[in-house]
Every structure is written in structure tokens, then in C-alpha cells.
Fold this protein.
Amino acid sequence: MRFEGRVVLVTGAASGIGRAAVLQFTREGATVLAADRSDAVQAVVETAGGKTVGLVGDAADEAFVGLAVDRAVRDFGRLDAVFANAGVSGGMTMLADLQVSEWEAVLRVNLIGVFLAIREAAFPAGHRRIEEARAALARVDHHDVAPETRQVR
């Protein structure tokens, strides 16, 4: 069990690659904080079993991400890895019809959300020097997920 004793935060955990990551991290022995803006994250938590906690909130919301990291440290004493997976497509609107507000919503989750997860994990409250941070950052791209099983390889 590669992640035995480790604590991992996964954003975008209710479906797709995020769901697969939660299930795999749990199978590998991790305590997982599964975060998503959808209540469907609770079903993932039930499926995963183990030491998995569901958090409902927006990965692009600074306060929510900070609270998720704080909860990991408070409840489990550490945060070892972050999988900043949350992302949105913005739909299939033609470029000429795309409103700036729609594009900003995509950027907020896909860029700012990742930035927030990494920043909050690397510099938890009260720790503003990287040497003091205990978070290890993990990035998994779509090639690491077997589509036929939806399991992280």
C-alpha cells in the first residue's frame, strides 16, 4: 500500500478522473479528503470506504480551499499530497457567442482553483516559508488513468 499513513486532498472528486483518484488513493491506504462542488461527492465517499471524508465546496473559492487544507492538518495531523483535479469545460458555446463571464468562470476553476490548492497546501496558515510546509504536491495527467477501468495506474 503505497499511500499507507498519507493524507491526500483531491479536488473535483465527484466524477471522472477525480473519482478514480479518490478510489485508488483509498485502495492504496491513504486518508482522502474528497472535495467537489457537487453533493455527489458523498456517494464517492461511500463507495471508497476506508478513511475518506467528503467536502462540498468550490475549488475556486479561496476560503473553501483554505478550510479543506486546515481540516486535513487539524483532523489528521498532516497533508501529504494534493491532486488539484477540479475543472470545467464551459460547455460547447461557439467562440463568437461566448460571454466573458462564461470564460471567467472556466478560468476561475481551471486556473485559479489549481493555484489555490497548491498555494494553500504549500503554505498552510501560519507557515509562509516553503521549508516549513509539509505538503507534497502531486500531479496526475489524463494519461495515467486507464479509461476502461477508471483506475489510476
Notes: The mean pLDDT is 84. Strands lie at 7-11, 31-36, 52-56, 81-84, 136-138, 145-146, 151-152. The longest helix spans residues 100-122.
